[in-house]
Design brief:
alpha+beta; Chemotaxis protein chec; 7-stranded antiparallel beta sheet; 4 helices; 7 strands; globular
Length: about 150
C-alpha cells in the first residue's frame, strides 16, 4: 500500500466514523482484535484515475444498526436501522475513500469511484493481517487499502 494512502486512511477513517456516524472510535490494540473465526460484514470500493486502488471495510455485524441509526437519526431498535446497516457501511466506506484520496494527493487529481459493493468474505483473513484496526463503540472495525499505483 502506498504510504500516503496508508497515513490518510489512518487519519480519515477515525474522523469519518466519529463525525458522520457519531461513534466513539479509538485505534485498536493487538489484544483487542478478533480471532480468525471473526464473521464480519464487509464492503469494497475501487477507484481509478492518476492512482488506482481498492479499499475494504469490515465491521462487527452488531455495529451496523448502530451505524445506520446514528446516520439516519433514528433509534437503534427501529427496524429500519437493522435493514439499512449494510448501506450505512457502504456509505461510510464511500466517504472514507473520497476523503483519503484528497488527504493523500490533494484536491487536484480527478478520481473515478465505483459504487461500493459487498466485499468477498474470502478476503477477510488477508485483510486482517495487513489492515488498520479501530474500535468503534468497543466493536472491531478493519480498513484495508490495496493498490494506489
Amino acid at each position: 500500500m502506498n504510504e500516503e494512502m496508508k497515513q490518510a486512511m489512518e487519519i480519515v477513517s477515525i474522523r469519518i466514523l466519529e463525525d458522520a456516524a457519531f461513534l466513539f472510535v479509538e485505534p485498536s490494540e493487538v489484544a483487542a482484535r478478533p480471532g480468525p473465526d471473526w464473521k464480519a460484514a464487509g464492503a469494497e470500493l475501487r477507484w481509478t484515475g492518476p492512482r488506482e486502488g481498492t479499499m475494504r471495510v469490515w465491521a462487527e455485524p452488531s455495529l451496523l444498526p448502530v451505524l445506520s441509526a446514528n446516520m439516519l437519526g433514528i433509534e437503534e431498535d427501529d427496524p429500519a436501522a437493522a435493514s439499512a446497516g449494510p448501506d450505512a457501511l457502504r456509505e461510510i466506506l464511500n466517504m472514507v475513500v473520497g476523503n483519503c484520496l484528497t488527504e493523500a494527493w490533494g484536491p487536484g487529481p480527478v478520481f473515478h469511484l465505483s459504487v461500493p459493493a459487498d466485499a468477498d468474505p474470502g478476503l477477510l483473513a488477508g485483510d486482517a493481517e495487513e489492515g488498520f484496526w479501530v474500535l468503534a463503540e468497543e466493536r472491531p472495525v478493519l480498513f484495508r487499502c490495496g493498490g494506489t499505483s
